[in-house]
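Researcher: Hi, I'm a grad student and pretty new to this. My advisor asked me to get structures for two proteins we've been looking at. I'm not sure of the right format, so I'll just paste the first sequence and hope you can take it from there.
Model: That works fine. Here's the first sequence with its structure tokens right after it:
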Amino acid sequence: MNSRINKLTLATLLIFIFQTVGGFSQSVQLTFDQVDTAEVDSVFTDYTIETPGCAVGVTHQGGLIFSKGYGMANLDYGIPIEPNSRFMIASISKQFAAAALLMMEQEGLLDLDENLKTYIPELPDFETPITARNVIHHTSGLRDLFSLLALKDVGLDNTTGPDATLELISNQTKLNFEPNSRYLYSNSGYFLMSVLVPNLTGMSLREYTNKHFFEPLGMEDTHFHDDTGMIVSNRAESYRSTSNGVGRFYRDNLDRVGARGLFITIEDFAKWDANFLDNRSNLKDFRKKMLKLGVFNDGDEQDYAAGIRVSDYRKLDTFGHGGNYMGFRTSYMHFTDYELGVIVFCNRSNISPASHAREVADIFLKDAFMELFEEYTGTYQNDLFRTEFDVIEEEGKLYLIRGLGEKDEMVWQEDDEFEAGSRTVTFERNGDQIESMKLRSSRTANITFERKN
């Protein structure tokens, strides 16, 4: 398998980042030159020359510091996965389509808050109009096109083209709910972006994103695949698990783009990730606009931006997205405190790329997680039950230990709350200092353990 480790990784990278965690300021120093790439390899040991697999990339401050392929892009011809293998990245494609709408708004071609029927006449007159902003943030209430296709008993290898798909969506005269009253993921809205762009620009979504994003960023191996007859070099095939091993997914009619359909490599995606730090696209204020969260009618803010979910992982702020279509499984997460991105593209249906991305992040951010969780470590005691629990940190992870045989990893949920096996652990503070923890399980609640040290 081809491996590439940038010189940036081989030199010492020191990052001093001042952040607020649990109410106090601390600095975290990371040294990426000490990252053992064999640890990354160990995450992907299941993917060999006999199986599909994954391409992996890690970025930092706009540079690709690690990239490698594991497993095979094409089993028929024995072609391995490499950092320049092209994957169809499923729903991660959505942020690229959303960027096109923001670009049209900048050009004065699109009002994000105008009735979408103004731009797509085929749509019905809904009781409450839907807008481009609604479809960006999944608040339109549109019935999902893949659920509708399933009701028609149309499989993934169907030949339902864009015209028939638009007709299917337009035949739905009712919405799931009042627009912008709630969130419900809808591929229909993102498919409509591939209709909206040519209606307003005279260019296909593929041509428009090439002009304003891919060409300025030098992303030569990236395109929206709106022509099923097009040859795609270095293409990773899509596989599924079967009772006899691995079988290939037949390619569907991928010219229905917007909700998915983007082909890209790890190397090109690293350039897209870098654009969040140093904008070279034609869209001004790229990062600010792409990460702007939607707001519901009642004023509450959601966690979904322009085809990007804004979240957190183990107390660190992140943004990113996942993808799942046919045999393609993809994940992207960017840690904003460190400007470190993790990209995982896989071509087998029973792979969890999000789990792999988190495992890779755990390796590269090990020192940061150790620093974040050190404040929770210690011995906690309940005198009534005469019971003690130890909270320890190992390799950037927290564990709850009782006696000799009970050891559960503590998975961070929010604030000072963790899940540990069947228990919920909530730490309590006196000012900035942790002074106790409360345990909760299915039949007990609020059992307090005081910190001894």
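Researcher: Oh nice, that was easy. Here's the second one.
Model: And its structure:
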Amino acid sequence: MKKIRYIKFSKREFSKTLDFCKLFSNSLEDANIIIKQFNSLTQNQRLEIIKAYSEREKLLKIQINSEDEDMYLTCTAVNFNIVATKYDIDPATVCICIASPCKSNEKIIVI
């Protein structure tokens, strides 16, 4: 059986990442639920989420005029929601997988 590795973060330290992800993905979910969802994902699921989002991001950059920043941000939030729907998680959890403060095989503890 594999040993599970946890990474400790202070509330203030982790709230920067969490607030960014919630704002960027237009999420209203509670922080504890987002952390619980993130920790419940396997290493393979996290890597699949990153890959799925990267593919959508690549398409978005081709299709959207780079000068229209509002449209780009809206489409990015939509992409977070599309990927989140596949895994039945919150869009902010997808964002945390992408901007992960830890390795894909580690879990988060906020103290």
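Researcher: Is there anything I should tell my advisor about the second?
Model: You could mention this: The chain has one domain: 5-110.
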